[in-house]
Amino acid sequence: MSAPRDDEFGFAPDYDSPVPYMQRTRDYYAAIGYTTPYRWAHYTEAPFQPLKKPLAQSRVTIITTAAPYDPAKGDQGPGAAYNGSAKFYQVYDGDTSKEHDLRISHIGYDRKHTSATDSGTWFPLPQLLKASAAGRIGKVAPRFFGAPTNRSHRVTLDTDAPDILARCLADKVDVAVLVPNCPVCHQTTALVARHLERNGIATVIMGCAKDIVEHAAVPRFLFSDFPLGNSAGKPHDVASQAQTLELALMLLETASGPQTTMQSPLRWSEDASWKLDYNNVAQLSPEELARRRAEFDKQKEIARGNRAA
Predict the structure, then answer these.
(1) Nearest to 86 by CA among 233, 294, 299
(2) Residue among 99, 133, 108 at smallest CA distance from 242
(3) Percentage of residues in the chain with pLDDT exceeding 90?
(4) How far apart are CA 4 and CA 189, in angstroms?
(5) DSSP symbols for 77-128
(6) Alpha carbons 147 and 162: distance in angstroms, whole number
(7) Integer Cα distance of 115 and 28 in angstroms
(8) Span 240-244, mean pLDDT?
(9) pTM score > 0.90 for this model?
């Protein structure tokens, strides 16, 4: 008997599933000559801090991996190539009562399928302020916080996460919404979320890299099956961004225990073939891999110099 055809049962193609970013990243760096596999943070249990008060009475902050725009650091605009000069290496904070120009040129988001023209897809402060004005949350905390995207687990665990916790405690934060962009960003925010929860602050991660976040075992995760760089919703689609934040707030209220993942019902597009592209060595020629290795080495040198400075 012949196998039934997918369309008879309405099956989706096999590639229309969450992108395996951990394996893609391992394969990609091996293909450009880095043969030591990266060790992704892995836990099998997670801390969990229930809400101490209703969201309508809670003070909420944002933790982002986006960087403040600095015109002295080269092209950081929409469509900019990866820009190691724009990376930051210490936690920073910003006044939530002011507008901010945060960008993601310094990290490995999906440059083929993401325009990076709308910061609302990676920095949901406007939506959070609307939620506060509507009484959905109590207050937006006076500051948001920037988490450096460190490949070093030790730096994130021993330096950056405690720094963010101290600033949250100083601002009397009840809840933190964490918004990563690149693969390592998702690991960074997972480690920070775990640290905050262990110290009494409820968290939810809004992200696009399901495998990385779940591998690190976090308290609450809202998964949007979108290209990297769109954790807070679709670009230039305010309704999508509002719905994504509302789903995250609902998850904060309804999760009964740790390692609770909610998947957004929103789809990026009907054609899911975009999932085949990001750092997929099967689709890259030897010449392209060599070019990328040279560019990666160049950016490493730039970043090394900035870190030393």
Answers:
(1) 299
(2) 133
(3) 83
(4) 43
(5) STTPPP-GGG---S-EEEETTS---EE-TTS---TTT-----GGGT--HHHH
(6) 11
(7) 23
(8) 98
(9) yes
